[in-house]
């Protein structure tokens, strides 16, 4: 296998000086070779039981090879049946890697990692005669993914299509989804390696099956990872993963707990969205961690003007403003970042393989779904500004306009010291895509770092950090009225109800941990977004 070229360049001389001692300690402790050998003791006794069943990702460039033939065979059979449209129903680690792989290769994959009725309805409106649905869930119980499966099953049946022949399942051995798929006679079941956590699963069946069925060259992806693997396993100061881990660890020790990611000509499309989950869910716990901030480019606010609380990382070429630059092909970068984040976890003193705070939001949403009256009684708006209903934190003044509400809210991030603003849009990320402009507008006007996430997908990504990481965030939720809802077959709720329950449930959990939450509900989505953007533009840094 040819050697794959990757490089980690620490452009900031002061950061490199601080990183060198950490790099030397990682080399002296043989962290790289122990990691590739599956040594579960690297993160301490408390982490050992979890680490012992989570380290198979280090050899996936070898062990995933048999999947290539299976994927190619299934894709050929589907195409011979006239089925060439691939829809992926999956959340977090089940969707983020396939999306970056297919976007980078320019092949079509419809990704459903949402509970927005409009976005799901758009996917249903595609040509079902040509459609196969990949149902992807490690646990086999993910509520969003199960809802998608039920909705498509009914749609296929209503169209006179044998539903079982149109479902391909990716899950862990023995999961409820695996048992259901076999009982229903689904077309194909791929069982993933159970000793790999979701955010480290890019090179397992979870990443490769949907991407490969869509037409991506997954063999080349594994070749790229294999080409960099020897360098990542070397106990050497030239090991790019150790260099990245040391730089991130040194930056965090110096107060830069945020990592701002921007593409700088890598040729990879959407890498930050995948790295976001890996970094946040692996490190954001016990009141510490690295908060990933995905910037639109090297000139975007938050990257170009990163302060002392943030490290600007260019994915691709070294550019002005970058403290670190990481280059390499997609397959190489996937494996490099996984090694680097695992090593950074050792430096931060946390277990990079658990996610202790993720379940809280799920429990809160389930409680609201089980008691619809509780969901309906979540309170009256603090104020109404045209098409925007304002649900402000308790004790917030009712006077003033929407800009005044936002100004007081974002000031709380500054008051927290090195705080950040998290924008969480429980909307349609295609139709309501303009909501994403709020990240740049808020970052430009507040001087704080600002993240943006589509709900509920971010709950499977950065949601762990929000509850378990540095407690200095404020959270702006956007919800909206639903024009046409979609019922979930054999369930007592619709997608619109589920979406709202997820937003309110997560907001309750955040508020219980002392995080300020402001929810803006758009009674008219287009007009409401325009109103919110105007209010943000009235802010001054």
From TrEMBL:
Question: For this protein, what reaction is catalysed?
Answer: alpha-D-glucose 6-phosphate = beta-D-fructose 6-phosphate
The record's section on Pfam families has: PGI
The UniProt keywords, alphabetically, are: Gluconeogenesis, Glycolysis, Isomerase
Q: Give the pathway annotation.
A: Carbohydrate degradation; glycolysis; D-glyceraldehyde 3-phosphate and glycerone phosphate from D-glucose: step 2/4
| The organism's place on the tree of life at top rank | Bacteria
GO MF:
carbohydrate derivative binding; glucose-6-phosphate isomerase activity; monosaccharide binding
Q: Does the keyword Isomerase apply?
A: yes
Any one of the GO CC terms: cytosol
Q: Which family does it belong to?
A: Belongs to the GPI family.
PANTHER family per the record? GLUCOSE-6-PHOSPHATE ISOMERASE
What name appears for this protein in its UniProt entry? Answer: Glucose-6-phosphate isomerase
């Amino acid at each position: 296998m040819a050697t794959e070229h990757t490089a980690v360049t620490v452009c900031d001389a002061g950061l490199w000086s601080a990183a060198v001692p950490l790099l030397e300690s990682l080399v002296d402790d043989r962290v790289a070779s122990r990691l590739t050998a599956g040594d579960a003791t690297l993160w301490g006794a408390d982490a050992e039981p979890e680490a012992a069943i989570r380290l198979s990702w280090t050899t996936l460039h070898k062990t995933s090879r048999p999947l290539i033939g299976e994927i190619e065979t299934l894709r050929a059979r589907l195409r011979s049946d006239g089925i060439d449209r691939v829809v992926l129903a999956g959340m977090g680690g089940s969707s983020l890697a396939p999306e970056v792989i297919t976007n980078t290769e320019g092949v079509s994959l419809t990704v459903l990692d949402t509970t927005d009725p409009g976005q799901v309805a758009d996917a249903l409106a595609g040509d079902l005669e040509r459609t196969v649905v990949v149902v992807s869930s490690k646990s086999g119980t993910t509520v969003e993914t199960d809802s998608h499966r039920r909705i498509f099953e009914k749609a296929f049946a209503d169209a006179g299509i044998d539903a079982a022949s149109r479902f391909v399942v990716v899950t862990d051995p023995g999961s409820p989804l695996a048992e259901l798929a076999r009982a229903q006679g689904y077309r194909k079941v791929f069982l993933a390696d159970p000793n790999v956590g979701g955010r480290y699963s890019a090179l397992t069946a979870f990443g490769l099956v949907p991407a490969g069925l869509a037409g991506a060259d997954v063999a080349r992806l594994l070749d790229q990872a294999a080409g960099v693997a020897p360098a990542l396993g070397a106990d050497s100061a030239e090991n790019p993963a150790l260099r990245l881990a040391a730089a991130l660890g040194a930056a965090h020790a110096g107060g830069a707990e945020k990592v701002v990611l921007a593409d700088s000509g890598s040729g990879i499309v959407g890498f930050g969205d995948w790295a976001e989950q890996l970094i946040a869910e692996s490190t954001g716990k016990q009141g510490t961690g690295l908060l990933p901030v995905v910037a639109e480019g090297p000139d975007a606010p938050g990257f170009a003007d990163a302060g002392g609380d943030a490290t600007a990382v260019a994915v691709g070429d070294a550019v002005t403003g970058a403290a670190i630059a990481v280059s390499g092909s997609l397959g190489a970068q996937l494996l490099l970042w996984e090694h680097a984040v695992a090593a950074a976890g050792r430096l931060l003193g946390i277990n990079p393989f658990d996610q202790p705070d993720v379940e809280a939001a799920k429990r809160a949403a389930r409680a609201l779904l089980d008691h619809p009256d509780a969901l309906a009684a979540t309170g009256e708006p603090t104020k109404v500004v045209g098409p925007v209903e304002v649900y402000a934190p308790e004790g917030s003044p009712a006077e003033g306009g929407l800009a005044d509400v936002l100004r007081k809210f974002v000031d709380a991030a500054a008051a927290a010291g090195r705080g950040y603003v998290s924008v969480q849009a429980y909307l349609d990320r295609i139709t309501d895509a303009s909501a994403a402009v709020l990240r740049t507008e808020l970052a430009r006007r507040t001087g704080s770092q600002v993240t943006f996430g589509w709900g509920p997908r971010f709950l499977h990504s950065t949601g762990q950090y929000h509850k378990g990481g540095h407690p200095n965030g404020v959270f702006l939720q956007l919800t909206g009225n639903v024009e046409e809802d979609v019922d979930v077959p054999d369930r007592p709720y619709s997608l619109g109800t589920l979406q709202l329950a997820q937003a309110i449930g997560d907001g309750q959990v955040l508020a219980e941990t002392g995080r300020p939450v402001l929810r803006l509900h758009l009674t008219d989505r287009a007009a409401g977004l325009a109103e919110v953007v105007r209010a943000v533009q009235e802010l001054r840094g």
